[in-house]
Amino acid sequence: CREQWFQLFPDSGVPDTFSKDYALTCAENEIELDQSAELTPEILKELKVKLGHILRIIRFVQRDKPPTAST
Predict the structure, then answer these.
(1) Contacts with 13 (C-beta within 8 Å, 6 or more apart), sequence order
(2) What's the pLDDT tens digit per position in 3-14?
């Protein structure tokens, strides 16, 4: 699980040194990679992710997110 997160964070623009810490935090909190689209700034703040990294991560995980249908 941690290895998958370690790939996501650098792919989103987070430096490797922080990626390792964030990957470990996600693993410790039992967050699976398939839940990445559900990450919110609030969740990432609770995980002690830096604000600039939050913006990069959210932008990265939402880029492949299918658009929602408007009602």
Answers:
(1) 56, 60
(2) 788 889 999 999
